Amino acid sequence: MKTISASRRAKPERITGIAHVFAAAGYSIGGLRRLWQETAFKHIVFALAASMVLLAIAGATFGDYCILFVLFFGLVAVEALNTAIECLVDHLTADWEEFARDAKDLGSLATMCLLIANAMFLVSVVIRYFILS
Which CATH fold topology does 39-131 show? Predict the structure, then answer.
């Protein structure tokens, strides 16, 4: 485990009111910047673009696009949580630990479940528009 240095930073004051909304938006943008450093997230963004092209070729409905974006944002949220877990685990231990492996494996499983859900939706669109019609 890493040691805590003697020069710890003080916890910032709590922000309330409308300023909290802007602060939260800033934190979210910071999270997005951090997530952009992950190769997996870049692949997710590329997959969204490819999925949108597929839906356009298929002549998908507005509802299909809504489902795609709900699944995409769910995947982004889970990938963000997975990345947060990995950051925390990497901070807690420099060596191999069973808890670290388990935490990372579970985060990876959550991401894979959403990837499968996205793939199942896209396959259903392909079947509906290219095979059944």
Answer: Helix Hairpins (1.10.287)
Can you tell me the distance from the alpha carbon of 78 to that of 114, in angstroms, rounded to the nearest whole number? 8
- Residues written for the chain: 133
3-state percent breakdown (helix, strand, coil) of the chain, nearest 5 = 80, 0, 20
Do the Cβ atoms of 110 and 81 come closer than 8 Å?
Answer: yes
This prediction has a pTM of 0.83
Is-contact 67 121, C-beta < 8 A?
yes
- Residue 79 is among the residues annotated as catalytic for this protein: yes
Return averaged pLDDT per consecutive 10 residues of the chain, 133 residues in all.
65 87 90 94 96 95 97 97 94 89 95 97 94 85
Backbone torsions φ then ψ of 107, nearest 5 degrees: -65, -40
Domain ranges of the chain: 39-131
Rg of the chain's alpha carbons, rounded to an integer? 20
Task: Count the Cβ atoms, other than its own, within 10 Å of residue 51.
Answer: 21
Catalytic residue among 79, 86, 97, 98: 79
